[in-house]
Design brief:
eight-stranded parallel sheet; globular; three-stranded parallel sheet; single chain; mainly beta; Leucine-rich repeat, LRR (right-handed beta-alpha superhelix)
């Protein structure tokens, strides 16, 4: 079902605090009109049939955004390096999409208020950037079911608020990673 007329009106709504449109079987790209609104709390578009790439103006248009959920769609392309502009983000969920490979953008390390980072099953490649260690408020990190390679960065051990860590089903090695540094505070740790 196409929702084009509805999506065009979203940008006209200037008093919105949040947009929750998850699980509505939306068939289109992510409506760019959302980024013309005054949303500050969150945008949740998870579990739809959205396709295309992530818009590159998410953070420049909505720099105070706290929640951004687009997991469980058919998004493709690469995850853009735009996150340095979203310094208020607390939860970022991009998992279960069909991204065309690509790395985890290193500017995710600038999201120092981030508590949830969900990139599970997103066809990501490359290494886990050491910048992840800058996310000192992070409580939940799920990078599982991707094509990540290389050594698990020791900087993950700096995440003392981390309660859930899932890195399973990747091609990672733990040579320099001291598991004991996180086992004191992580409740759930999935490596394989």
């Amino acid at each position: 079902m196409s929702h084009e007329p509805f999506q065009k009106k979203l940008g006209d709504l200037q008093q919105l605090h949040a947009i929750y449109l998850g699980g509505n079987q939306l068939l289109s790209t992510i409506p760019t009109s959302i980024f013309n609104s005054s949303v500050r709390q969150g945008i949740t578009l998870e579990s739809n049939n959205l396709s295309g790439s992530l818009p590159t103006n998410v953070c420049s248009r909505l720099p105070k955004l706290k929640l951004f959920y687009v997991d469980g769609n058919d998004l493709s392309g690469k995850i853009p390096s735009i996150w340095h502009q979203c310094k208020e983000l607390v939860e970022l969920q991009l998992g279960n999409n069909k991204f065309n490979g690509g790395d985890i953008p290193t500017d995710i390390g600038n999201l120092t208020k981030l508590e949830w980072l969900y990139l599970r099953s997103s066809n990501l490649q490359g290494i886990i950037p050491s910048e992840i260690g800058k996310l000192t408020n992070l409580q939940h990190l799920d990078l599982s079911n991707n094509n990540l390679q290389g050594i698990i960065p020791s900087d993950i051990g700096k995440l003392t608020n981390l309660q859930f860590l899932s890195l399973g089903n990747n091609n990672l090695q733990g040579q320099n990673f001291n598991y004991m540094t996180i086992l004191d505070h992580v409740s759930i740790f999935v490596l394989f």
